[in-house]
Each structure stands twice: as C-alpha cells, then as structure tokens.
Amino acid sequence: MTQLFNRYATYNGSNPYQAPATLNVIPHFEYHFGAFTPKDGMYGIIKALVKLAEELDIRFHYDQKVEEILYTNENKPKINGVKVNDKTYKADMVISNLDIWFTYKNLLKDIAEPKKLLTQERSSSALIFYWGMDSNYSDLGLHNIFFTKDYQSEFNAIWKDKAICDDPTVYVNISAKHIRNDAPLDSENWFVMINVPANKGQNWDQLIMEARTNIIKKISRILNRNIEKDIICEQILDPRTIESKTGSYQGSLYGNSSNNQFSAFLRHSNFSSKVKNLYFCGGSVHPGGEFLWPYCQQK
Fold first, then answer.
1. Distances in whole angstroms, Cα of residue 57 to Cα of each of 51, 53, 54, 66
2. Among positive and negative, which fits the CA dihedral 124, 172, 153, 204?
3. For the chain, is the Cβ count within 10 Å smaller at the N or the C terminus?
4. With b meaning 16 or more CB within 10 Å and e meaning fewer, what string describes 121-159?
C-alpha cells in the first residue's frame, strides 16, 4: 500500500521519499472523483479549446517560432509584442507557455534572469516506448503498473545517480482496451513509460538500450510470455527529445522538482515583476503540475 500511494508523487516528477505529503491530494481526487477520458482522446481537449477560441475571433499562427519577446524601455519595461521570422507583431500582453528557463535564456533580451530559480533541481523526466503489439493481452487492462521490488533504490538511482535502475517500475497504458479503434483488430497500442532523471549529459543511447531490455524481460516474466516477438513497430521519447519537442529544459516534465516542503512557494510566479503585462503559464511556474492536475480531474 505504501508503494502504491508513493507512486502519486511521480505524477509531478518528484521523489516520494522527499516530496511533501501535500501531494496526497492527487490520489484523493483520483479515487474520490475518478479519472476521465475525453471522447476524442487527449487531443480532443486541444481541438475543443481551439474551437472555442476561434468562435471568440482568436487567430492562431501555426509553425511560427517566436524569436524574441519585445518590450519598451521605460521606467518599468512594458510588453510591446513579439518577433517572429524578423517580423514584429504588436501586442499589449504576452503569455509565454514555454519553460521559464528557455523563456529567460532565449526570448527575453537584457532582462536579468532569476538565477536561484533557474538553478534549482529539475523534476524527473520519462522514457517512453510506443509499441504496436501484434496480439491481444487479455490479462492486461487500460492501466497497468509493474512495480519494482525495491522502490527506494529506484529513486536513489534517478535522483542521486542520475541513472536508471535495473528493475524500474513500468507503467503500461493500452487505450485500445477502452477505445477499440485506437489499434487494429487483434492488435494493441502500448504506451510503456518509466521514470528517469532529467538530461544531464548521460549516455542516453546506452541507457535506453539497457532499459528496453530490462523492461521486456520484466513484463515477459510477469506475464509468462515473450512480448518482444509481438512488437511490430516502435517509437521512443526520451529526455532529449522531450526538450527538443516541448521546450522543457533538460526534458524535465514539470520544471523544478517538488522535493521539499517549500517547493510550491519557490516556483516562479505566473507574472513578471520586471516587465509589465508579461505572464507565464505551464508546469514550470506557479502553481505547478501538482496542483493543476487534481483541479483538472475535478473539473
């Protein structure tokens, strides 16, 4: 039971042996209110928000990389717009959902960065295998967790050694169990994830190869069948690609870690005290993923 409830600290990339007990609000919301699946999957949330925004005459510019957040140089700097492909777009307000680290480092020129905040310990990351399985597994459900025998050693490997233990806890989500059309008939789509450290320059190619072998051995042993022969396609997401695809520094999933009782108060605020009308959102700023997640569950 302790291991089961310790699991919830990982929902915001934290170490259950260091994180505050406040994070127990997460299992409370999950077990009391339940979790829900959007009719069109997670992407359905994006489509709904875009539809609502467009009905309010909001225009989206896709595949446009912002190069700089612009501001006027008055007594107190004030937002002026953004620069995209050397073209200026005027704006009275800017909200950055990019990781706060890259917002300061790449988008805000000549604005002093909050060094203490940006150098805090980052949250953990994830190693994910997307497997197309050429078989059905009747003994598995929508959500499946294969626990390690030594949970504390697993987190010591992640947080102290910045590595992956030989017996990681493995989470397997098979959405086709709930939405049959998510995979071809007589096949399944496996989302296979383990917790890993943020990218500190480790040899990820080696770590991924070793982790893949250990995961396959573990699941095959527990299910008493060779799952590797059923893998017919594979994609991999690791801390390096998480950073390159999402702009999350070091591939951490929630910005700074929540491994102490003051972490929620030490997060960057969701507005700038230096530039008027500059706001921030996302897991790297206040209130952080640990409080946004249960709120979304309740709603």
1. 10, 7, 5, 21
2. negative
3. N
4. bbbbbbbbbebbbeeebeebeeebebbbeebeebbebbb
What is the per-residue pLDDT across 42-71, written as a single tens digit (0 to 9) for each?
889 999 999 999 999 999 999 999 999 999
Q: How far apart are CA 37 and CA 39, in angstroms?
A: 6
Give the pLDDT confidence of 132-180 residue by residue, as tens digits.
Answer: 999 999 999 999 999 999 999 999 999 999 999 999 999 999 999 998 9
Q: Are 129 and 236 in contact (CB under 8 A)?
A: yes
pTM equals 0.90
What gap in Å lies between CA 1 and CA 16, rounded to an integer? 13
Return d(Cα 42, Cα 38) in angstroms, integer: 6
Q: For residue 126, what are its two tokens?
A: 């994830």
Distance between CA 238 and CA 257 in Å, rounded? 18
Q: What's the length of the chain?
A: 299
Angle at 3 (CA atoms; ends 160, 217), nearest 5 degrees: 75
- For helices 289-298 and 25-33, the axis angle rounded to 10 degrees is 10
Distance between CA 143 and CA 18 in Å, rounded? Answer: 26
Q: Where are the beta strands (DSSP E) in 122-277?
A: 125-133, 143-146, 170-173, 188-196, 231-237
